[in-house]
């Protein structure tokens, strides 16, 4: 399991920029979380810093325990043979039950409507209330016998798992709640008969709290385990693309689960979180079958073994490590199979309600239907006369650099004074972004020093810089703001939030504390930012995005991948509720789904550090932004061609062509970092074909050269043989003449008789 290391203030980590390059002074090396880290005196990194793994680290046998389970589940299972386990929720309920039953626990069967049929927390609350609280309202589809069966199982369960999967739920005209989507889709009912509602984050937290109270009253000593189903929405009933709708829904549930967990866990050491969602979404590259919704056998096996390791019997760390190795091998084989037999793209647009399978994702129009639907402007509005202000996290820096390179007026790219220009990709939490607008437009100055650059250089509250920032904001026609993370350090006496971790030479453990920004705080910060822009630039276009780059490290003292998923879910959930509140009344407000494109459309979008997307994935986002927001004339055909190349690379990275793809990726990244121009993302397939032609041509050339050499050698040997034969004839003739001459001399020398 993971070891937590305390990092002394004089051995704090150097910060890296968006490309992973070290931007601080390097110093000695310390071993933190099993890896060597260059350190200096730049930033204090907390009491228990746990780093996001690289691909090689994650693929180690102990990767599941170290980067997913640690700190979230019991270090040692407390289960006893024959104990009863109850799993309520959707999708993976039966899979978790099978894993528990295979490892020493028991489970009593539930009515069919309860066996994986409760997709949302509101449904769980109503079902548990109906079974455990006699005063509760009835639930459609469950009779007294069903509720009695559930009540009996709850009464003897030692481990109770709640595993919701979505924030949408359905109600009829009467206050009777449906358990799942089937009544709406199959019954032919429409709005006003059976309506689809979406629970907010706060409503979901309240429902979780109610479920928890009911279960604790019935089973005070039972383990209660929270989980989130990793399976996407079966049907999309929103006005947005299915991929965006699913990620928004999952983010609401995931952020609510963590919010409630942080409230209840300090007083209840029998409350746990099982990271089913994170394990499937991040632990494997090919966890789904061709429908991209049903879990593949190797993903199910790994999920079950991880659950058994935490809550059942007979599975230790070695067994989990062995299961991880086996799952990795199967995952690679699944990728090889998909690469060898890529899906045939759909010839027609997919069903608007359906989750896109591999064939749908291979179509040229998949991004338009699955991701961009309902989010893009009716016509491009960025032209050379518009002034763009872009800052926040990585996407703002990427888009500002890209748009500046292709000739648009990105003011924050051309300015070197304002902090939003100098640290445009380092103001990553919603408090820090809000601070810049309040400082520039309202003159609100923090009470303590909060702002520092990558090298811990203090950014004060200079009036000249404030006025320059206000000048930039006053010129802004388009604001592009990217949200990055929800983990922050703050000054306890004032409550004010730092941009990043506290500089080492400023760190005071008595006043500098770590915490999560809640979803409610993030939402309020977004409202405040919006109000400020609208008050000072009422006609400006506003584009929000969420960065796909995970945390570099977490300070929560638990597995990093899970902490990072929570950090993003909080932001994505807040953005979703923010847009529900404003978008209908404000046509100049947009959300660009960079996060969804990177995390939802590809099997291997990240470089080997598992944090930074490949450049071709970044540039796909840039080109989509250019296509829909800019007047450059970039067309669908060019997007389709670029998308095809990105898909080719995504599959080729899992096969024999990986070295060729990685070599080309490195060349492009060097070009992007070097001269600042947008690199030509040349088709690796064409490069490979060209290389094959070159190799064949070289082979023909070498064969022709060898043949010519053989012919020359034969001619040379023939000429040499002829010369040697002629020389031999001459030698023989000379010898004959010599003999004849000697004979003549001898004849002349004999006396006459």
TrEMBL record:
Residues 707-753 are annotated as: Disordered. Residues 713-745 have a biased composition (Basic and acidic residues). Residues 137-285, 388-625 form the GSCFA domain. Coiled coil: none annotated. This is GSCFA domain-containing protein.
